[in-house]
Amino acid sequence: MSRHPQLRFHLPELETFLVVLEEGSFSRAAERLCISQPSVSSRVKRLEEVLRVKLIERNPRSVNATEDGELLRTAAQEALSGLYTVLRQFRERSEAARNRVVVAATPMLAATFLPGIIHSYAQRFPDVDVVLKDMPFEVLLKTIGDGAADIGVTAMDGDYDNLQFQALAAEPVVLVVPAKHPLANEARITIDQILGLRLIFLDRYTTMRERLAGEFARRGATMNASTASTLPTLMGMLDTGSCVAFLPRSMAQVNARESRSIVELADFEAVRSYGSIVARRVVPTAAVKSFRDHLHREFSPLI
């Protein structure tokens, strides 16, 4: 590979040289660059010393490029034009990113609560582009941690070192049973009434399962439970009539059908806390802060 000579001058010196020729005057170049005339002269002199050529001829009434100066002007204009184009693209991309908010949410929240919130936000801030992506819980956590999304919206148990959770609202957990189940006509039941039933949970409801298993153990029973990774799978299992499910009230209501009934538990209180999550070490943009504030104002009344 051919070796290029090292360039020991600075970009402001080259830019000053070009401005002097464009303005035809050191004083006018100084005004345009908002620096002193001696600074302009010093920059041009430094460039000539580094390149070891005379670049500009000063006449009483004009400033002209030498032959070497013309060569440098042509090459510099071409090079800087390309450079400025790239820098402008970088700036435009950066500005676009600052006005873009990527929201990751679990499917139920993405389909129910968030569209209205995003719509009301867009009416107030039409210049901000909000992108909503629905995904499973574990994928959501990774997406936020990796920086592929700005804000996550989900129900979450436990703490994560790399994520910051801010509660939006909490709602009670209810039992969902097939409409033909013996418990379907009951408004409220007790744990004793479900001791012999097969239960199903979403797999991320770890804390709830552990608490309920403890209640079963105190009654001398072992909880018969399975898990599903997604809500459609859980509902499919429920609809077979082989099990009953524990779900947050809003999720149960959204998925209510004639074939499903919602029952309250009288002696077991569990809640799911919905919240927004962001990566701890990421400094949010103004748009992200603005959307998160709006989310927390608008979400609570929905539960």
Shape: rod-shaped
As a whole number of angstroms, the C-alpha radius of gyration is 33 Å
Give the ordered list of helices and strands.
HHHEEHEHHEHEEEEHEHEHEEH
Q: Name the structural class.
A: alpha/beta
Largest sheet: 10 strands, mixed
Uncertain residue segments: none
Shape-level CATH architecture of the domain at 169-272: 3-Layer(aba) Sandwich
Mean pLDDT: 87
Give the CATH topology of the domain at 169-272: D-Maltodextrin-Binding Protein, domain 2
CATH-assigned homologous superfamily of the domain at 169-272 = Periplasmic binding protein-like II
Question: How is this structure best summarized?
Answer:
The protein has 303 residues and is of the alpha/beta class.
Protein architecture, described:
With 303 residues, the chain is an alpha/beta fold. Among the domains are: 11-94, Arc Repressor Mutant, subunit A (Orthogonal Bundle); 169-272, Periplasmic binding protein-like II (D-Maltodextrin-Binding Protein, domain 2, 3-Layer(aba) Sandwich), CATH 3.40.190.10. 45% of the residues lie in helices and 23% in strands. It has eleven helices and twelve strands. It has helices at residues 11-23, 26-33, 37-51, 67-98, 107-111, 113-124, 137-146, 206-218, 231-239, 249-254, 286-299; strands spanning 56-58, 63-65, 100-105, 129-134, 151-155, 163-178, 188-189, 198-202, 224-228, 244-248, 260-265, 271-279. The strands form two sheets. Strands 3, 4, 5, 6, 7, 8, 9, 10, 11 and 12 form a ten-stranded mixed beta sheet that branches. Strands 1-2 form a two-stranded antiparallel ribbon. Helix 1 (11-23) crosses helix 3. The model has no long low-confidence stretch (mean pLDDT 87).
